[in-house]
Amino acid sequence: MQHEIGIWFLLLSLFVPRIVLFFWWVTGNLPVNTTPFIADLFASIFVPRILIMVWIYQSMGPCAWFWVHLVVAILVALRFSVKAASKNS
Predict the structure, then answer these.
(1) CB of 56 within 8 A of CB of 65?
(2) Is residue 64 part of a domain?
(3) HEC states along the chain?
(4) Would you give per-residue pLDDT tens digits along the chain (89 residues)?
(5) Which domain holds residue 55?
(6) Number of structural domains in the chain
(7) How many other β-carbons are positioned within 10 Å of the β-carbon of residue 32?
(8) Is 72 a domain residue?
């Protein structure tokens, strides 16, 4: 069964995933998902982008939003790895 996730959640979570997760959790508007609570808690602290991609995939399948979030996650990871590599040399 597929559910749509709100456009504001999808859009804002591209830029500030932790803040969006916290705000949507406080307001009780998190997307429908089957992820266990402990996994939600752990992922929202350490890897919020991956958690959001899991929710998108569970709710909407491999849609355009999933691929956009995946590309942004890869770009952010590359940016920070290049930054860390230049810091060490």
Answers:
(1) yes
(2) yes
(3) CCCCCCHHHHHHCCCCHHHHHHHHHHHCCCCCCCCCHHHHHHHHHHCHHHHHHHHHHHHHCCCHHHHHHHHHHHHHHHHHHHHHHHHHC
(4) 466 788 999 999 999 999 999 999 899 888 878 889 899 889 999 999 999 999 999 988 899 999 999 999 999 999 887 777 777 76
(5) 7-88
(6) 1
(7) 12
(8) yes
